[in-house]
Write a structure and sequence with these properties.
alpha/beta; Rossmann fold; UDP-galactose 4-epimerase, domain 1; three-stranded mixed β-sheet; 12 helices; 38% helix; isomerase
Length: 328
């Protein structure tokens, strides 16, 4: 584990969990985050735990220079995250997800950063020809959203597919499954969290394309995955891409609703037939298990239970607050 780790976007949904794991591993953790979603409270919590929090924009060269000073490793999470958020402001997503990401890579390489972890997504697989057959890391990437296209572009540069971008630090790309679960910077615009919230609140839930597949990963396990990568030997993790999740945690939307209904006896579900969905994929996760020994500890039913418990305890007085989603 490098002594000092810079986590861009470290006050975000996944970022705060990454910071907790790295602190537990004994790392000196620094965060660069613009607090785009009003996470001042998360930043304060991180600072109280011993994280050096730098409030700044990853697009700002001066902010990047300050953040990178003395860093041995970078975990690059800062991004406009999600299909809807990127589609809502393509210019901003390009500036952050491409231009700023490339600048972080350039400057990390010049600064001699020894480990670079890039947060990518299983959405890169898009709509597979046969979603009944799980895809692994060697499968064709078929991004169908601007968000996934941008992730694929950065992956290709880091993994050597784009030689025209200049030197890169030793990098590992993590294709996270769809995230769920309770975290310091909560999100209710993610499928498991959203469905659980709506049904727990006894609302109508409209489901489009209930037959389409997606893999899922608890946000705490996403943090553990980053810690595992940074704790692995250089020759094991550098230059590699890993799907991060469990092969038995692929679900259709109907499966999710059925799992929620076993714990939440409220709400009404309406299924809307849709034969075309841009994303439909099942993912295999054997590589991350075999190479890194990483196995997620949580299952979707665990996440459903904790979201319902958090709502029951009043931890989110207004779970529809704009702070809890990435688009307004």
């Amino acid at each position: 584990m490098p002594d000092r780790v810079l986590v861009t976007g470290g006050a975000g949904y996944i970022g705060a969990m990454v910071c907790a794991e790295l602190l537990d591993a004994g790392a000196d953790v620094r965060v660069l985050d613009s607090l785009l979603h009003g996470q001042q409270d998360v930043a304060q919590q991180l600072a109280a735990q011993g994280v050096e929090v730098q409030v700044g924009d990853v697009r700002d060269p001066a902010a990047r220079a300050r953040a990178l000073e003395g860093a041995g490793a970078v975990v690059h999470l800062a991004a406009i995250v999600g299909d809807h958020a990127c589609a809502a402001d393509p210019a901003l997503s390009g500036a952050v997800n491409l231009d700023a990401a490339n600048a972080v890579i350039d400057e990390a390489a010049r600064a001699g950063v020894r480990r670079f972890v890039f947060a990518s997504t299983c959405s890169n697989y898009g709509r597979m020809a046969d979603p009944e057959v799980p895809v692994d890391e060697d499968a064709e990437l078929r991004p169908v959203s601007l968000y996934a296209e941008q992730k694929v572009a950065i992956e290709r540069r880091l993994l050597g597919g784009d030689r025209g971008g200049g030197p890169v630090p030793p990098a590992t790309c993590l294709r996270f499954a769809t995230i769920y679960g309770v975290a310091p910077r909560m999100r209710f615009d993610l499928t498991v969290n959203e469905f659980t919230r709506d049904l727990w609140l006894d609302r109508d839930l409209e489901i489009f394309g209930e037959q389409f597949w997606r893999p899922y990963l608890h946000v705490a396990d996403a943090g553990r995955a980053v810690r595992t990568v940074l704790g692995a030997p250089d020759d094991v993790a550098a230059g590699e891409v890993f799907n991060v999740g469990r092969s038995d945690e692929n679900y259709t939307k109907r499966h999710l609703v059925e799992a929620i209904a076993r714990q939440v006896a409220a709400g009404r579900v309406h299924y809307v037939q849709r034969d075309e969905d841009p994303r439909d994929y099942r993912v295999a996760f054997e590589k991350v298990h075999a190479v890194l020994g990483f196995v997620p500890e949580h299952r979707v039913p665990d996440g459903i239970a904790e979201v319902a418990e958090a709502l029951a305890e009043g931890r989110f007085p207004d779970p529809f607050d704009v702070r809890y989603r990435n688009t307004v």
